[in-house]
Specification:
The chain has 61 residues and is mostly beta strands. The chain has strands spanning 20-28, 34-40. Strands 1-2 form a two-stranded antiparallel sheet. The two termini are 24 Å apart.
Length: 61
């Protein structure tokens, strides 16, 4: 018997699934390393997925 199919995961529409990126600050430090920071998508908080609640059941999909 087949298992029940799970609904497909929903990719975050704000970041298109690329939830974390490295952004250069410009220039290099004294050791010659490129200065970067990590920026996370504010909508999905760095997961790349968006969970929606169905109105009838209240279950996260």
């Amino acid at each position: 018997m087949d298992r029940a199919a799970l609904p497909p995961r929903r990719i975050c529409p704000n970041c298109d699934g690329h939830a974390s990126v490295a952004v250069t600050l410009g220039g290099r430090d004294r050791a010659g390393h490129l200065r970067t920071i990590t920026a996370h998508c504010p909508a999905c908080h760095g997961t790349g997925l968006r969970f929606v609640r169905t109105a009838a059941t209240g279950v996260r999909v």
